[in-house]
């Protein structure tokens, strides 16, 4: 696991009218504050990324479907420099993926059908805060 990345298994509580899925508490590891929550839909088989936040910690949960996240650490001085982390979360493994600033991330919808993820970050979205790349320098391909 890349240094600073946390995978937290979460509870799914079945009920007669549906399931309650735990998400994030302010006492949880990786919670650093609230600025914005947003949902992202991804089509089955489609990939989004590579993207890196410079200040923001992401707390990602899949609320529908299944998503495969691939993370890459190119932080100078990191004890996990050059390492990849590959994790699937969704309906078969309900968890929260906490990604600290400075980690490259790409993710792919693995269905069934479209998947939806929720990201909770500690500040409002600022397009200048993150960067993207084509992934050619990252040792991973779909």
Distance between the termini: 19 Å
Structural shape: globular
Which CATH C-level class is it?
A: Mainly Beta
The percentage helix is: under 10%
Any overview of this molecule?
The chain is mainly beta and about 140 residues long. It has one domain: Sandwich (Jelly Rolls), CATH 2.60.120. The protein has strands spanning about 5-10, 10-15, 20, 35-40, 45-55, 60-65, 65-75, 85-90, 95-100, 105-110, 115-120, 130. The strands form three sheets. Strands 1-9-6-11-4 form a five-stranded antiparallel beta sheet, with no helix packed on it. The protein has a five-stranded antiparallel beta sheet with strand order 8-7-10-5-12, with no helix packed on it. The radius of gyration is 15 Å and the shape is globular.
Give structural attributes:
142 residues, mainly beta, 5-stranded antiparallel sheet, globular
Quick structural summary:
By secondary structure, this protein is mainly beta.
Itemize the secondary structure elements and their pairings.
Elements: E1 6-9, E2 12-15, E3 18-21, E4 36-42, E5 47-53, E6 58-64, E7 66-73, E8 84-90, E9 95-99, E10 103-109, E11 115-121, E12 130-132
Antiparallel strand pairs: 1-9, 2-3, 4-11, 5-10, 5-12, 6-9, 6-11, 7-8, 7-10
């Amino acid at each position: 696991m890349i240094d600073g990345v946390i995978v937290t298994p979460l509870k799914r509580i079945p009920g007669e009218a549906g399931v309650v899925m735990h998400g994030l508490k302010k006492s949880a590891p990786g919670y650093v504050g609230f600025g914005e929550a947003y949902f992202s839909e991804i089509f089955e088989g489609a990939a989004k990324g590579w993207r890196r936040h410079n200040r923001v910690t992401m707390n990602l949960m899949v609320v529908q479907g299944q998503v495969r996240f691939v993370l890459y650490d190119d932080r100078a001085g990191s004890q996990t420099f050059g390492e990849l982390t590959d994790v699937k979360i969704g309906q078969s493994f309900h968890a929260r993926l906490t990604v600290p600033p400075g980690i490259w991330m790409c993710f792919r919808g693995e269905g069934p059908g479209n998947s939806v993820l929720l990201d909770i970050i500690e500040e409002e979205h600022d397009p200048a805060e993150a960067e993207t790349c084509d992934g050619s320098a990252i040792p991973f391909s779909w």
